[in-house]
Write a structure and sequence with these properties.
With about 375 residues, the chain is α/β, with parallel strands linked by helices. Helices cover about 25% and strands about 20% of the residues. The protein contains 9 helices and 16 strands. The strands form 4 sheets. It has a 9-stranded mixed β-sheet with strand order 9-6-11-12-5-13-14-15-16, sandwiched between helices. It has a 3-stranded antiparallel β-sheet with strand order 2-3-4, with no helix packed on it. About 30% of the residues are buried.
């Protein structure tokens, strides 16, 4: 008697039950996805874990401020800390000089809490039979906390990355300033990605590609819109079959509206940044902590692989802040109280108690 064959839907992907063996800086996600950190812990939480391997991330720049560079610096520095290969393309004449501006990891805020407390040890002697259980839990907690920091670090934007983390790494810098076409950049990307083929069973290393200001006017191909769109298609195809993530930043104001829409459609994850105005009194009255903000981050699209479930975010617009002028923070926008009233006063109009004069519902 022939054995029955299980039919799988064309919309599903056969995934092994065992978790793949992952290298440093990688994390398992739902539906067999593997995440790579953006270098900003807050952004990783917003995106559900980070950037999925094999995805193309596009960031729309602000013509008035280079806030997209904050995202690129953290993304590139996070990869170098994990020893991941990096390809960086820039319209600058010497792209290697940008590596000297990458930030250094910030000191852990929990260093003091990890030191043994003599008073705590003294208290444990009273209930010595519970000490071993407390010790096991503490080790597990530290391991999870350390793993989280290893996956995504906080960076001190005022402290440059140490040279030993740059020297000896697999870094390929490409200048696209004087390129008459995109063949050279496409060949460099193909060579880079050929060293990182997709293997779902074991992923020992992942690569990062960063292309800054792709359609900048300094590039000779900046008016070749069809060629640039063809390059993005080719890069996305190569990325999908490799253990890598590519980020492309571009100023949408330099593209025609139709090609700008095409570029946005090609992205798996689509972000945009916008600077805040120095003196915007209306926004300052509407948003709490506006004086600490340097810009806005908009999440237009979030990559989802191996699933067709739509992504519903709690918010799509976030504030970009520099905590102590050193650390990049992404936060939800909070509306300021109206007319100086406190938050408790908003509940009085909808009160269900008999003491409320404005409420229509009395029990």
């Amino acid at each position: 008697m022939a054995t029955a064959k299980t039919r799988t839907s064309s919309f599903c992907r056969n995934l092994s039950s065992a978790a793949p063996s992952l290298g440093p800086g990688l994390k398992c996600g739902p539906n067999g996805m593997v995440f790579l950190s953006s270098g900003i812990p807050d952004l990783d939480k917003v995106l559900g874990g980070g950037f999925p391997l094999g995805s193309l991330v596009m960031v729309m720049e602000d013509a008035e401020a280079p806030h997209h560079m904050l995202l690129l610096r953290n993304f590139m520095a996070q990869g170098l800390i994990h020893g991941q290969p990096l390809l960086y393309a820039s319209p600058a004449r010497d792209p290697k000089g940008f590596l000297g501006t990458l930030p250094s990891p910030a000191a852990s805020k929990d260093d003091k809490s990890r030191e043994p407390d003599p008073h705590q040890e003294k208290g444990l002697r009273i209930a010595w039979q519970y000490k071993k259980y407390f010790g096991e839990n503490q080790l597990n907690f530290d391991g999870q906390r350390d793993g989280k920091h290893e996956y995504s670090n906080e960076f001190d934007l005022r402290k440059p990355l140490e040279r030993h983390l740059i020297i000896g790494q697999r870094i390929d810098c490409v200048s696209i300033q004087d390129s008459s076409d995109l063949s050279t950049l496409q060949d460099r990307c193909a060579t880079f990605l050929s060293q990182l083929p997709r293997n779902d069973g074991s992923i020992s290393c992942a690569g990062r590609i960063t292309i800054q200001s792709f359609c900048a006017p300094q590039c000779a191909y900046s008016n070749m819109e069809w060629e640039m769109l063809s390059f993005i298609r080719s890069l996305k195809s190569m990325i999908q079959s490799s253990n890598s993530v590519a980020i492309i930043t571009f100023p949408p104001s330099l593209l025609s509206p139709s090609f700008g829409k095409r570029w946005q459609h090609m992205a798996d994850t689509l972000l945009s940044v916008k600077a805040t105005q120095d003196e915007d009194k209306e926004l300052a009255q509407l948003i709490t902590g506006y004086q600490d903000m340097v810009g806005f981050l908009n999440v237009h699209k979030v990559a989802r692989i191996n699933t067709q479930v739509p992504v519903i975010l709690e918010a799509t617009t976030f504030s970009i802040k520099l905590h102590k002028r050193r650390y990049l923070v992404i936060e939800c926008l909070n509306q300021a109280p109206v007319d100086g009233s406190s938050g408790a006063s908003y509940g009085t109009s909808g009160s269900c108690s008999s003491s409320s004069k404005t409420g229509n519902l009395d029990f």
